[in-house]
Amino acid sequence: MSQPLPQQSSPTPLPLDGVTVVAVEQAVSAPFATRQLADLGARVIKVERPDGGDFARGYDTAAQGLASHFVWCNRGKESLAVDLKDPRGLAAVRRLIAGADVFVQNLAQGAAQRLGLDAATLCAAHPRLVAVDISGYGPDGPYAHKRAYDMLVQCEAGLVSVTGTAEQPVKAGIPAADIAAAMYAFSGVLAALLRRATTGRGGPVEISMLEALAEWMGHPLHHGMHGGAAPARTGVAHAVISPYDAYPTADGGQVLLSVQNDREWRRLAEQVLERPELGDDPGFATNAARTVNRAKTDAVVAEALALLDTAEAVARLEAAGIACARLNTVADLADHPQLAARSRWREVGSPAGPLRALVPPITLPGGPQPLMGAVPGLGEHTDALLREAGMTDEETAELRRDGVVV
User: Which residue from 41, 50, 106 is spatially nearest to 77, judged by alpha carbons?
Assistant: First the structure.
């Protein structure tokens, strides 16, 4: 059950209280990074195009008429809808940046530089500013100007080649390249702010989606470079441990179990499979043997679990000390008992009304709750932000008449 955020009871401020972020952002990588900052107390000013805004607003209408990507990545921000190609709009944004602590952008390669909004230019003008450039492949090299969307970068980084079954490679079911870049941008901002606290200077932060995801590919990458070949695609199964796979149960569910050593195999054979003789059988007694005989190993495990419903299978495995999990759906996750027991759901405001949202995973026990502000409507804060940038109401009205802002 979703709950409203409790009232702040601790005098301790959120870690980023007092930090102002201006972001010229779209899609996922930059918005997800700045949402982390907003949740931790930063004020985030989101600069959007007046003709529709962040294009992620139009991806779908699944969240009560709003786009699910946008709702996920943009709560707690102020929306300024302004045309940066108009000198008056650009000047207003530059004035906001001059008073900010952090600037983040993920425009197409070269666009920020043409506007004078690249990290190098801004940090030269504002030495205390932390300025983040997020790109697909970095500012130089043969791929610098190549279009970079999440699935394309998943392919370039080799993630798709190690995901899926032996017969069919597949993309990750989440935007892994975008999320990787976002989290390195988030941690890069925190590191740069910490450095500024000791040196007085901010500086540029450069994040490449390819390089972020390549780091996440560390295990298959090192396995391939040093071992001669990348791990094989094995679907849900583990490439080098057996049994470590999902098996159907009698009520139509699936349970994934993991046997990490030969002692656990013997317990599984005795207490779950009810075939104690397999514990010392040379064809199954060691992980090496079970992996060579993976088909036979999977068959004996599947035969036993097929006679149990999901709850009984999980209970038996846990009683035997075997690591296991239900193969949940997205709907199962939304109703997960562990998330409910730990009160990890809240309601946030939006133009469509209250929406259910997860509490950020960074928990500060004994400290204040994360902000989790409302999802903004396009241009919801334009007038107030232009006033803050020094524009009069007459100047703002003129920009609105000219279509420079909404």
Answer: 41
Which residues are designated catalytic? 178
Task: Confirm if 46 and 351 have CB atoms less than 8 A apart.
Answer: no
Alpha-carbon Rg for the chain in angstroms: 26
SS3 15: coil
What pLDDT, in 10s, does the model give residues 268-307? 999 999 999 999 999 999 999 999 999 999 999 999 999 9
In contact, 355 and 72? CB cutoff 8 Å: no
Element (H, E) at 248: strand 244-248
- Candidates 163, 167, 166, 143; CA nearest to 154 is 163
Q: Is 70 exposed, middle or buried (0-12, 13-18, 19+ CB in 10 A)?
A: buried
| Amino acid, single-letter form, for residue 380 | E
Per the CB < 8 A criterion, the answer to whether 234 and 165 are in contact is yes
pTM, two decimals, is 0.93
